[in-house]
Specification:
165 residues, single chain
């Protein structure tokens, strides 16, 4: 190797020794000092900016949890309103059904009562005619002075009277 360096002609042995010391220094820096410096720098970053980032991450997670809880609460309120509405409709339907059943029962009772009254009226009219007819025949016998039962039964006078009136 023939390099012309002018007045700077280094001694090759000194150059080799300087390079060896340089690489030894670089090795010592690279394996011992720089990892320590990097570790201290990382600790300082973690103590300052790392905490801020973790706090921001925790805050973001808390906001996400709060938003999820608010959404759940909103969904629960919506579900509760839907259930209330559903039961209100069911209550209204039950009241309407009970009212319809009550009206139907009332109509049945009224119809049964009217039928009973009509039957009692017919029975009373029949009894009244029989009793009035018997009393009329008895009264006629007292007025005439002799029994008219046989004549009235034979001629059916009382029945004909009630049929015309």
């Amino acid at each position: 190797m023939n390099i012309e360096l002018g007045p700077l002609k280094p001694d090759p042995s000194m150059l080799a020794l300087g390079l060896a010391q340089f690489f030894l220094l670089m090795w010592a820096l690279g394996f011992h000092l720089l990892p320590r410096v990097e570790r201290v720098r990382a600790q300082r970053w973690d103590a300052t900016e790392g905490r801020a980032e973790r706090a921001e991450a925790v805050r973001a997670e808390a906001e996400a949890t709060r938003d999820a809880a608010l959404q759940e609460i909103g969904a629960a309120r919506h579900e509760a309103a839907r259930i209330r509405q559903e039961y209100a409709e069911q209550g209204t339907a039950a009241i309407a059904a009970a009212r319809a059943e009550g009206l139907r029962d009332r109509d049945l009772l009224l119809a049964a009562g009217h039928a009973r009254i009509a039957a009692d009226r017919a029975e009373a009219a029949t009894r009244l005619r029989r009793d009035v007819g018997g009393l009329a025949v008895t009264l006629a016998g007292r007025v005439v002075g002799e029994p008219v039962h046989a004549v009235a039964a034979e001629r059916r006078t009382v029945d004909r009277f009630f049929e015309t009136h």
